[in-house]
């Protein structure tokens, strides 16, 4: 069957195309149109979509003949301020793609969402409950909510919630390796909390599994845990994290979010990263466990390589390193 991957030139989209090609699937990249929106509610978003008929028609022509369409486009910018472009990329675009799929007769649409839509919940799950806390997470949550309002008779729509996705070429992973080697590397006692870090390889395989699944699918699928804790994440990159009292960590986070709120949430994304480093986030086993789906578990090796690359760049000249 033929796949179309919107945003195929990006970090996640490129991984999805590579995985599909490795599985012998016909997969074509599709460039994502740039759209903007000031919508704050699903109804406002749908009204914006009504005014984008030309974009929908263009997408429908490109997607015609596809059995599965994957939306890997969007603005992966957890620390970005609120903007028309952020809402357009993460909320309006998925609606336009869903409408294009309906026009082109595409039976299944897999939308890449984010576990950030559930915010600070202690346990991530596959429910429709969301608790966004930042402009980025609100834009992702808005897109999910609007997709769930899509009328019956169109494509089957599945939102795959990616967790903290890592890849050896991703700047976020390199930044994590630098943090792990710094004096700031730390965890909240005792350091055994599950961390939601996961590999882009596992996410790409999850997308392939969902897209090709022959049975009934839920509306939301959560990327599963790869077994790492907050401590082992930092240790995998070669770091030795300091173990801090949980009470101290809570005070620092409350202060950070308060300051960020006074600055228009500009620091929410950064404070959230610290929160995940200290406390991690648990998650339910979900659909993959129910179906017995086994995905590659590569995040540990990715972090180890990121740490090795960082140490390699720090080797002085003449050290004998190849």
Find the count of extended strands (DSSP E, 2+ residues). Answer: 12
Low-confidence stretches: 315-322
**Count of helices?**
12
What's the gyration radius in Å? Answer: 20 Å
Give the H and E element order.
EHEHHEHEEHEEHEEHEHEHHEHH
Reported for the largest beta sheet, the result is:
6 strands, parallel
- Order of adjacent strands in the largest pleated sheet: 2-1-3-4-6-10
Q: Which secondary-structure class do the elements indicate?
A: alpha/beta
Secondary-structure map:
Elements (H helix, E strand, L loop, with lengths): L1 E5 L4 H12 L3 E5 L11 H9 L2 H11 L4 E4 L12 H21 L3 E7 L8 E2 L10 H14 L7 E7 L1 E3 L4 H10 L5 E3 L8 E3 H13 L7 E3 L7 H7 L5 E3 L1 H17 L5 H12 L2 E2 L2 H6 L7 H15 L9
Parallel strand pairs: 1-2, 1-3, 3-4, 4-6, 5-12, 6-10, 7-9, 8-11
Written overview of the protein:
There is one protein chain. The chain has 322 residues and is α/β, with parallel strands linked by helices. It has helices spanning 11-22, 42-50, 53-63, 84-104, 135-148, 171-180, 200-212, 230-236, 246-262, 268-279, 286-291, 299-313; strands at 2-6, 26-30, 68-71, 108-114, 123-124, 156-162, 164-166, 186-188, 197-199, 220-222, 242-244, 282-283. Strands 2-1-3-4-6-10 form a six-stranded parallel beta sheet, sandwiched between helices. A two-stranded parallel ribbon has the order 5-12. Helix 2 (42-50) packs across helix 4 and helix 6 crosses helix 12 (299-313). It is globular. The termini are far apart. Residues 315-322 have low confidence and may be disordered.
């Amino acid at each position: 069957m033929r796949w179309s991957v919107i945003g195929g030139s990006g970090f996640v989209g490129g991984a999805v195309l590579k995985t599909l090609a490795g599985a012998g699937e016909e997969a074509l990249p599709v460039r994502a149109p740039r759209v903007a929106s000031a919508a704050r509610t699903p109804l406002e978003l749908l009204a914006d979509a009504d005014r984008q008929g030309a974009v929908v028609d263009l997408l429908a022509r490109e997607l015609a003949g596809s059995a599965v369409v994957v939306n890997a486009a969007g603005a992966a910018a957890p620390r970005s301020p609120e903007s028309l472009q952020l809402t357009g990329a993460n909320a309006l675009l998925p609606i336009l793609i869903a409408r294009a799929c309906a026009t082109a007769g595409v039976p299944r649409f897999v939308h890449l969402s984010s576990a950030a839509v559930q915010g600070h919940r202690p346990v991530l799950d596959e429910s429709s409950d969301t608790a966004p806390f930042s402009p980025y997470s609100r834009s992702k949550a808005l897109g999910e909510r609007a997709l769930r309002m899509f009328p019956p008779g169109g494509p089957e729509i599945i939102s795959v919630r990616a967790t903290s996705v890592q890849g050896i070429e991703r700047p976020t992973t390199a930044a994590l390796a630098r943090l792990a080697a710094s004096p700031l590397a730390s965890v909240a006692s005792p350091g055994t909390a599950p961390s939601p870090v996961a590999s882009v390889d596992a996410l790409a395989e999850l997308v392939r599994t969902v897209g090709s699944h022959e049975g009934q699918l839920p509306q939301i699928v959560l990327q599963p845990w790869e077994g790492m804790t907050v401590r082992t994440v930092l240790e995998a990159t070669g770091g030795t994290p300091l173990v801090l009292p949980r009470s101290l960590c809570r005070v620092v986070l409350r202060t950070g979010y308060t300051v960020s709120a006074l600055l228009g949430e500009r620091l929410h994304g950064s404070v959230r990263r610290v929160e995940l480093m200290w406390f991690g986030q648990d998650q339910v086993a979900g659909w993959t466990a129910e179906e017995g789906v086994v995905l590659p578990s590569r995040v540990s090796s990715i972090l180890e390589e990121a740490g090795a690359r960082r140490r390699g760049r720090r080797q002085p000249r003449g050290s004998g390193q190849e």
